[in-house]
Design goal:
Structural class: alpha/beta
CATH topology of the largest domain: 2-enoyl-CoA Hydratase, Chain A, domain 1
CATH architecture of the largest domain: Alpha-Beta Complex
Number of helices: 30
Strand order of the largest sheet: 11-10-9-12-13-14-15-16
Distance between the termini: 37 Å
Radius of gyration: 29 Å
Shape: globular
Number of domains: 3
Number of strands: 18
Length: about 750
């Protein structure tokens, strides 16, 4: 077998070793899944096998399902009638479920030895063994992240975790997809033992040895016809008198837990995520029946999700598309890998520049920070030190690692320090004149092969590249704030940007472990032009007299992480005003004013309310309490007596953002629908349940979305007018992904 091997020692202990030759990590692919099932059947039925050990020859155990297997299942489902599609998914998943259960009930002691991470199906494979030993290393993560992909565990995860730790402790793992360390898993009862790295197999085998004779006797007894007898080493739910931790569904302790869990899921997700509802249902129903019936219930709910549009969209965006982009699906193939060895950051004293320097140094890159003065540049190192010390305090980093990261950062006001950098990221203030000055100063000292990138968020790259003596080596690398937390980076190709610059940008983004999307040059690029429509729509609503609280809540009810007024405060209202002025000056007569301008003028120029940074914006930010909407908003923007239906506001927020994403494709700013969806969710948090704006349009259908646009255009203005690309898709009944 190419993916797994098995060997039986002199004591009758069979060892299954996962070692996929053409993969950096072990995964459940079509081939490896079939081979694992075959080995389970073979070893469980072999009378010479007295115990079974599952382990890995790679540093990690099993990283879950293979991306190609997920794609294949989704593709198959899309081509079949509803009933046939459901049968296909159920049979495929239940076959694995049956094999896991056979291993669990074979009457032989079965242990798993994990030297590294075990996620999704990999963790479920371990849970189906009787004893789990994991190396004591906090870098190892265990868990079931399926709910984050719009699906749920389907190989016993929901039923086994709940039976091991109870509903309350299981909720973060199965509902939120939270990953845990070996120590936390041990404390909760999900694993049995941690050990010094490298000794997992030895300890797991020792446990098997202790139970070999008991297993022999157990199988002999069962062979006589007594099938109900169980061994002390077997799963607790297969033993007589097993009780669910925390009480069963209708116990005094258990019933309130389900009532609270259901209410909490509703509060946190607004009922938008099908996976959370399915998981709760599978657990609730599964806890009332024996394990074999419970496992079948789990597969049924998994099948229901997998055959629905939400699972398809979320899995495609969060798993398939995201991984493909991170692996360089859009990187020029003709350019050899060129990781960054030394990075120059211009404007490192600012918040963005300091963040870029921090994450780059953390990725092992030497960093030179330049600013107007030595004192200003030194702020970058102070920022990094503050962030690193917080991580040390939380145990996420050792002091030695923090010190090595800080040692990679050099700060100065002397541009000659850039002489041997191979990439520059300019992160100075959004002013074309300032950017021109620092570009010229830097290029006087850098080498001919150095790539120059700007972190501008609004100014076209092609215009800025005119300041460079090598425009083919000039590119945009747009980070989102805060740099340390936001996962997306936009790589912006100017009119003259060459493949070398694009490849360098990709390699840098991969080094710092961010997700890249490649977009063509245009004012505001992709993410910012869409998020501006989101914020602007809230200004239109304010001008119409809609209650500010209703605006914010309607946005959250479609799954946006923060309301548009809160988002405006976070990014600073005066920054919005400056961007407006710069854009207006650059566009001249083509510039179209909107209600946001008058609102910003009132808030910033008349009242001095700048947002969170001034502790006053659309919200008040008291030092001793939580932020609250500013009461003065009702005077500044009088509230209408009759308020619109919340469903109408939700529709407006969804439509205006999806519409702008579509226009970005029509304008050739975005050329790959995968990037439109990944960029939307990871860049500004567009309704994750939808899989992204293009997936949202495809799900409701181009015709239905066109109808929404035309209705809203008639009610609220030309900003909702459907573009030609939508009209063509509607008339030909095509989806944008096909």
């Amino acid at each position: 077998m190419q993916n797994l091997t098995s060997a039986i020692d002199e004591n009758g202990i069979a060892t299954i070793t996962w070692d996929m030759q053409e993969q950096s990590m072990n995964v459940f692919s079509e081939a490896s899944t079939e081979q694992y099932i075959e080995l389970i059947d073979q070893l469980c039925d072999d009378e010479n096998v007295r115990g079974i050990l599952i382990t890995s020859a790679k540093p990690e155990f099993i990283a879950g399902a293979d991306i190609k297997m997920i794609e294949a299942m989704a593709a198959k489902v899309s081509t079949l009638p509803k009933v046939e599609a459901a049968k296909h998914v159920f049979d495929k998943v239940y076959r694995v479920q049956t094999a896991f259960r056979k291993l669990e009930k074979c009457g032989k002691p079965v242990a798993s030895a994990l030297s590294g991470l075990a996620l999704g199906g990999g963790f479920e494979a371990a849970l189906a063994t009787h004893y789990r030993v994991v190396a004591n290393d906090d870098k190892i993560k265990l868990g079931l992240p399926e709910s984050k992909l719009g699906i749920m565990p389907g190989w016993g995860g929901t039923q086994r975790v709940v039976r091991l730790v109870g509903v309350m402790a299981a909720a973060p793992i199965i509902l939120e997809g939270r990953l845990i360390s070996p120590q936390k898993a041990l404390k909760s009862g999900l694993i049995h033992e941690t050990c010094e790295p490298g000794k997992e197999i030895e300890i797991a085998k020792a446990w098997i040895m202790k139970h070999l004779e008991e297993g022999d006797q157990l199988r002999a007894t069962r062979a006589t016809g007594d099938k109900k007898i169980t061994g002390s080493f077997e799963a607790p739910w297969d033993q007589k008198g097993f009780k669910l931790p925390g009480g069963d569904v209708y116990s005094a302790a258990g019933f309130p837990i389900f009532m609270g869990a259901s209410a909490m899921v509703r509060k946190l997700t607004y009922g938008l995520y099908e996976s959370q509802k399915a998981i709760l249902s599978a657990v609730y129903e599964g806890m009332q029946v024996p394990m074999d019936a419970a496992l079948k219930i789990e597969v049924r709910y998994f099948t229901k999700l997998m055959c629905g549009p939400q699972a398809r969209n979320m899995s495609r965006t969060f798993f398939i598309s995201k991984q493909a982009l991170e692996k360089g699906a859009r990187r020029p193939e003709t350019v050899e890998p060129q990781p960054v060895k030394k990075l120059g950051v211009l404007g490192g004293g600012g918040f963005m520049g300091a963040g870029i320097a921090n994450i780059s140094a953390g990725a092992g890159i030497e960093v030179v920070v330049i600013d107007q003065t030595d004192e200003a540049a030194a702020k970058a190192k102070a920022h990094a030190e503050k962030d690193l010390m917080k991580r040390v305090e939380k145990g996420r980093l050792t002091m030695d690692q923090a010190e090595k990261t800080l040692a990679r950062i050099t700060t100065t006001s002397d541009y000659s320090a850039l002489k041997d950098v191979d990439l520059i990221v300019e992160a100075v203030f959004e002013d074309p004149a300032i950017k021109k000055s620092v570009t010229e100063n830097a290029e006087a000292h850098i080498g001919e092969t150095t790539i120059f990138a700007t972190n501008t968020s609004t100014i076209p790259i092609s215009a800025l590249a005119e300041n460079s003596i090598r425009p083919e080596q000039y590119i945009g690398i747009h980070f989102f704030s805060p740099v340390e937390k936001m996962p997306l980076v936009e790589i912006i190709k100017g009119n003259k940007t060459g493949d070398e610059a694009i490849a360098k940008a990709y390699d840098f983004v991969r080094q710092i472990k961010k997700t890249p999307i490649l977009v063509n040059d245009a004012r505001f690029f992709y993410a910012n032009r869409c998020v501006l429509r989101y914020v602007e729509e809230s200004h239109f609503m304010l001008a119409e007299g809609v209650k500010p609280a209703l605006i914010e809540n309607a946005a959250k009810m479609i799954g946006m992480p923060v309301g548009p007024l809160s988002l405006a405060d976070e990014t600073a209202l005066d920054l919005g005003l400056k961007i407006r002025n710069t854009t207006k000056a650059a566009m001249g007569e083509k510039y179209k004013p909107n209600p946001a301008e008058e609102n910003l003028d009132k808030m910033v120029l008349e009242l001095g309310r700048l947002g969170r940074k001034s502790a006053s914006g659309f919200y008040d930010y008291p030092k001793d309490g939580r932020k609250k909407l500013w009461p003065g908003l009702s005077e500044l923007f009088p509230v209408s007596e009759k308020q619109p239906d919340v469903e109408q506001l939700k529709k407006r927020f969804l439509t205006i953002q999806a519409l702008e994403a579509l226009r970005a494709i029509e304008d050739d700013v975005v050329t790959d629908v995968r990037e439109a969806d990944v960029g939307a969710i990871m860049g500004w948090g567009f309704a994750p349940w939808s899989g992204g704006p293009i997936s949202y349009i495809d799900t409701i259908g181009a015709k239905a979305f066109l109808d929404d646009c035309e209705t809203l255009s008639h009610q609220h203005g030309e900003r909702f007018a459907p573009p030609e690309i939508l009209k063509k898709a509607s008339s030909s009944n095509q989806s944008f992904y096909t």
